[in-house]
């Protein structure tokens, strides 16, 4: 993860970077600094500009406007092979006719002056140890599993000791269990080597679990940059809250604003205390807002007397659907004024109170701190 002391000069800098393909603006006015040893992820849906941003860092695309800096040096127009970066692609791009050792050593063998054969062999052996592939040097690529091929691609990129490693959805082809294992391995590798990682992904869990900071993108622009916790707890607007984790959104109107609390009106009759999100400062009374409440923040009970005493909202709702997900149960609930919304019940809560049945009427509450007022952007 991120190093204890940030470098004086960022490893990567975008200043007013835009990229157009004809009439299509793929990236617009990007400003970004990435420090040495940081793990940053570009997160967003398809077509949001994250891959274009990565390709401009790598040198596969050049900005239409603005400047890209690597290690403080402006690299506009500098070809990819002359940049201190390496890239791991989604489909790995390994050479099928070469064995593992020859794939990993490929970059070293292209250097001029070229290291001697013994030095290359030692470097390859050490790198295969780091990615847990010791003893695989002479295996053919087609003899490896998907996870092993992914580690070969990482080893090939890392052996050249780049200042910056770019990862273009490198775990997309793996199954869920293996993907989680590789997420941990990537984190450990990044921490051990101290190399700056920049990841592109559309998988929110992947970005949140691995990154020091996440850059949320939409329509070619950066919407918000922050730590995973900042983005989850203090999203700038509804778009970010909806993209980072699950959330319920209730349409409402801003009634009162205060220093630490605001009051909103839901469904015209329900007045709810909430926390003002980052965008509330520019809002006026009477303005339409979205009230965000995360499903895990809701408390469910058959007995309203067992709901927390500090609950800001207490409702009676009907269970429409129940999905068992192992560590928790997800309930789709319906309330007359608010409509349908989700709630999560941790497994341990079902020890004291059995799971709720479809069609059952139950009581729901949440605290004022669980409700966040956001702009509708």
Largest sheet features: 6 strands, mixed
Number of alpha- plus pi-helical segments: 10
**Model regions low in confidence, pLDDT < 50 over at least 5 residues:** 1-7
Q: How many domain regions?
A: 2
**Helix coverage percent:** 10-25%
3D architecture notes:
The chain is an alpha+beta fold and 377 residues long. The chain folds into 2 domains: 222 residues, Rossmann fold (3-Layer(aba) Sandwich), CATH 3.40.50; 136 residues, Beta Barrel (OB fold (Dihydrolipoamide Acetyltransferase, E2P)), CATH 2.40.50.100. 23% of the residues lie in helices and 34% in strands. It has 10 helices and 20 strands. The strands form 4 sheets. A 6-stranded mixed beta sheet has the order 6-7-8-3-9-10, sandwiched between helices. A 5-stranded mixed barrel has the order 11-12-13-20-14. Strands 15-19-16-17-18 form a 5-stranded antiparallel beta sheet, with no helix packed on it. The longest helix has 18 residues. It is globular. The N terminus is likely disordered.
Question: What's the quick description here?
Answer:
By secondary structure, the chain is α+β, with helices and mostly antiparallel strands.
Write the layout of secondary structure elements.
Blueprint: E1 12-21, E2 24-34, E3 39-43, H1 50-58, E4 65-70, E5 73-74, E6 85-88, H2 100-104, H3 106-109, H4 117-130, H5 146-158, E7 164-168, H6 176-193, E8 196-201, H7 204-210, E9 213-218, E10 221-226, H8 228-233, H9 238-243, E11 248-257, E12 262-266, E13 270-276, E14 288-293, E15 299-301, E16 313-324, E17 328-335, E18 339-346, H10 349-352, E19 361-366, E20 371-374
Parallel strand pairs: 3-8, 3-9, 6-7, 7-8, 13-20
Antiparallel strand pairs: 1-2, 1-4, 4-5, 9-10, 11-12, 11-14, 12-13, 14-20, 15-19, 16-17, 16-19, 17-18
